[in-house]
Automatic annotation (TrEMBL):
The keyword Cell membrane does not apply. Pfam families: Arm_3 (PF16186). One of its GO terms (molecular function) is nuclear import signal receptor activity. It comes from Chironomus riparius. This is Importin subunit alpha. PANTHER family: IMPORTIN ALPHA. Coiled coil: none annotated. InterPro entries: ARM-like, ARM-type_fold, Arm_3, Armadillo, Importin_alpha. SMART domains: ARM.
Length: 437
């Protein structure tokens, strides 16, 4: 059999050259194994036995081509497969890879090593902490800085993805030093011209934001202007969804953090995004608006001034349950926290008619939000009108009152309690006289 034998390269069980002392034969075999493991749904379990030999070759070989093949193989072995991760750990593979990172000058080899470490770290929190204990995080940060200066976009994309995996929400939040270093790097890369790199950086920012203590760091970085620009012109739905969730988390913060979005003209962007055809994206936008509406009066007024309500109220009748639920929460928060000016504006847009249709909804949360909203509107009407509460008349006109009376017998006591308060406070009804249905 020759080195160029096609039978050897294609035969799935032929790995004898891997154990040869001839570097050329080793390389041919390494390439063959790498190709098998790079296919869709590779049979990793039946290839685990090569791990020990591949690690031996990492120690013995000095050529970039061979080391690239070896580290690529290990990356595939550790990719989402627990037994593969266990095998590398059992053979002290992480220590071998760390030494390789320290000694090699080949950026592709380093990148592949970091990729392998990322796959290992993603396995579970114990694996992540083991990788961190080797100093991989700081080595990766140093490497990213070097690659950033060289502007090697392909390697940079992989490295930022790798860095983001250390902050996955399923794990306990990292120490403050790690988070601040990571956030600083993600923000820097988010301003890069490469779209894919910006996306990976955005997910890194989102992961770190799971710990809300870093929201102010994000605001102070000045990145909100960049995020707003991306939201205006980005077309990739995954990227848009990620950035909207970042903004939604900001809106979920205190009044000052929420105000930073209004000050950076995000309401205008949200108005445009309300017309997206992507339902999941739309749900995220409305969720963000509900967070803003949970703020103070001035922030609810900013939603009104941004012409959000006309489009949003129509969504109360959307066929998508999740859209309806998010939309009704915006209305509920707005009636709870908004001024009488906002509530009058909502009534003029016939919000009571739309809320009436939702009183029959199967979802208890939607019904409760509707009842709460109607109560808030009626309460405002008592203060707004001197003699007759015109809002109470409108509730009856739209058929809400009859439905509200029926809700006295709802399964949810939270709904029943608010219904009784409506009937007793605004209609002077003796609730005992309402017939049970």
């Amino acid at each position: 059999m020759t080195e160029n034998s096609s039978n050897f390269v294609s035969a799935p069980s032929s790995v004898e050259w891997l154990y040869s002392n001839d570097p050329k034969k080793q390389l041919i075999c390494l390439k063959s194994i790498r190709k098998k493991l790079s296919k869709k749904d590779p049979d990793i379990e039946n290839m685990l036995y090569v791990t020990s030999r591949v690690l031996e070759l990492i120690i013995s070989r000095n050529d970039s081509e061979g080391l690239r093949e070896c580290t690529w193989i290990l990356t595939n072995i550790a990719s989402g497969y627990s037994l593969g991760v266990d095998e590398i750990l059992k053979l002290n593979g992480t220590t071998i890879l760390k030494k390789l990172i320290d000694k090699t000058s080949d950026n592709i080899v380093k990148n592949q090593c970091f990729w392998t470490f990322s796959n290992i770290a993603c396995e579970d929190e114990q694996c992540r902490d083991h990788v961190l204990s080797l100093g991989i995080f700081h080595s990766l940060i140093t490497f990213i800085k070097e690659i950033f200066e060289e502007n090697d976009e392909d390697i940079l994309k992989t490295c930022i993805w790798t860095l983001a995996n250390f902050f996955l929400p399923k794990f306990t939040s990292l120490h403050d030093d790690y988070c601040k270093l990571g956030l600083k790097m993600f923000i820097k890369c988010f301003r890069h011209s490469n779209q894919i790199l910006r996306k990976e950086a955005a997910f890194g920012i989102l992961h770190i934001m799971e710990n809300r203590k870093y929201i102010d760091n994000i605001i102070e970085s000045g990145i909100l202007n960049d995020i707003r620009t991306e939201l205006e012109f980005e077309e990739d739905t995954k990227m848009l969804s990620c950035m909207i969730r970042i903004v939604g988390n900001l809106a979920w913060g205190n009044d000052q953090q929420t105000q930073s979005l209004i000050d950076n003209d995000f309401i205008y962007v949200f108005h445009k995004l309300l017309y997206t055809e992507h339902k999941e994206l739309l749900k995220e936008v409305i969720w963000t608006l509900s967070n803003i509406a949970a703020g103070n009066r001035a922030q609810v007024k900013a939603i009104m001034d941004g012409q959000i309500f006309p489009k949003l109220i129509g969504m109360l009748n959307d066929e998508n349950f999740r859209i309806r639920r998010e939309a009704v929460w915006v209305i509920n928060n707005s009636t709870q926290n908004g001024s009488s000016e906002v509530i009058v504006h909502l009534v003029k847009l016939e919000v009571l008619k739309y809320l009436t249709t939702l009183l029959d909804d199967d979802d208890h949360e939607i019904v409760k939000a509707c009842v709460d909203s109607i109560f808030n509107i009626l309460q405002t009407g008592e203060m707004y009108f001197k003699d007759v509460n015109l809002f109470a008349i409108l509730v009856d006109k739209y058929g809400s009152l009859k439905k509200i009376e029926h809700l006295q017998f709802h399964k949810s006591w939270l709904i029943v309690d608010k219904v009784l308060r409506i009937l007793e406070s605004f209609y002077k009804r003796d609730v005992k006289e309402v017939p049970k249905i």
